[in-house]
Amino acid sequence: MTTNDTTTTTTVADEHVHVEDVPTGLLIGGSWRPATGGRTIAVQDPSTGAVLAEVADATPEDGIAALDAAVAAQDAWAATAPRERSDVLRRTFDLVHEHTDDLAALMTLEMGKPLAESRGEVVYGAEFLRWFSEEAVRIGGDYRTNPEGTGRGIVLKRPVGPVYAITPWNFPLAMATRKIAPALAAGCTVVIKPADLTPLTTLFLAELFRRAGLPDGVLNVVTSSDAKELSAPIIADRRLRKLTFTGSTPVGSALLKQAADNVLRTSMELGGNAPLLVFDDADLDTAVTSAMQAKFRNVGEACTAANRFFVQDGIADAFLAALTAKVEALRIGRGSEDGTTIGPLIDGRAVDKAAALVDDAVERGARLVVGGERVDRQGTFYGPTVLDDVQPGSDILTTEIFGPVVAITRFHTEDEGIRLANDTEYGLVAYAYTSDFARGQRLAERLETGMLGLNTGVVSNAAFPFGGVKASGIGREGSHEGIEEYLETVYVLTPDPFAR
Length: 500
Ligand code: ADP
Known about the structure:
The protein has a seven-stranded mixed beta sheet with strand order 16-17-18-15-14-20-21, sandwiched between helices. Strands 11-10-9-12-13-23 form a six-stranded mixed beta sheet, with helices on both faces. It folds into two domains: 9-270, 3-Layer(aba) Sandwich (Aldehyde Dehydrogenase, Chain A, domain 1); 274-457, Aldehyde Dehydrogenase, Chain A, domain 2 (3-Layer(aba) Sandwich), CATH 3.40.309. The chain is an alpha/beta fold. Mean pLDDT is 97; it is low at 1-6. The termini are far apart. The longest helix has 21 residues, at 115-135. It has helices spanning 60-78, 82-98, 100-111, 115-135, 174-186, 200-211, 227-236, 249-261, 284-296, 313-328, 348-363, 414-422, 437-446, 479-484; strands spanning 9-13, 18-23, 26-28, 31-33, 40-44, 51-56, 142-145, 151-159, 163-166, 190-193, 219-221, 242-246, 265-269, 274-278, 306-312, 367-370, 385-388, 405-411, 426-427, 429-433, 451-454, 469-470, 473-474, 487-495. The structure holds adenosine-5'-diphosphate.
């Protein structure tokens, strides 16, 4: 343990919250160390711009050192009893819950979301640890007679090998556990690179894994201000066997090209452009309450955020009025202040993007119902906004907003609603509100999406397969499918044991 070393831990605090002993180094082979050359990255609070901590800025050599550690630990970890891997995950689950306040505080400070949402993310993120602690002991196989009756096939599963995981800034805990937990459960070792905007949560999580007894080198953490420079040599290294990424589609696509050279297994959880359909027969309260969650959870900074609202004519006025009332009641503030429901966006670029999308939509004929302005206070805030009658061709219909903006288009028939919903290159999640179950079934069969929230506003759950179709990605996280992403299938043929 080198966690008491002042060069590798710090205290992160503001006037409301305070977290001690947050690691700031690189975790390589079981010890925390500074980056070679000692460079650091400043981590900022987006609600004030204040520097919260300086974390190590890894060089490409540090990245390869982390891979060396993962490779060195791979065989021993793969050989552990499934129950041993399960127990480490379960102990980490318990530690994450014990440190709910610390992890929530870190997420709120480095990412900006309200504390209540950060606590919600601790519960959600921890579930992957519990779920995959349970899956670790249920890795299956097969034994069957071949169709000719002349042999027996045995199918077994093996860990794919060392994994490189790259995670985004919007769900600092859950994006890490969603990758680390199934990889460890399967018997893979991991190098993880969190986003440089929000590394503190992952660093703290890694420390909890250590305290839970995870052997040295099984989980390694590298932080860098130059993700490409750090990642390219790791992805090109023949010893790496798997790349798992959550982030934007352009970066995912570039990573897939790099992974192709090394024929890596990949899981890609990429961008979304979620449609949210409200039908005339929807229960209005359910639709409005769920739509608020689907849109404003995480200040809209989620790949699952409802991006395009399609509302049927007959309910449109009532839906707009009820939704607008709720939007006007949202409270802007620092995430660590009581009562805040809308925190800052992650940075100034995110604010510029939301503002440009709203301005473009209004110029093309949308009606601004509420909001549409930057917030005049310190930090990177954009006011919650509702647009009605968004016109075809508006950028907001083809761009992931990642901000607190509702963009409503009205439609007439079910077919038209489905056509509009599918008119995107993305296919991560869709939301639909209807009291007609057969319509719900039709939507499930016709919407081009990996997930559908039917009369609900949040679909994420560790027990179900999270992932998209089309440009939204490849592979699934959570559920039994989640562990398969980290397993290889090996098939053995043997002769008929009764043949003489
Ligand atoms: P976002 O727009 O949500 O920040 P990105 O796709 O840019 O999404 O980033 C997601 C993660 O991918 C972050 O950890 C970031 O550092 C990393 N990343 C960005 N570009 C690259 C790259 N060229 N190679 C490897 N990782 C990258």
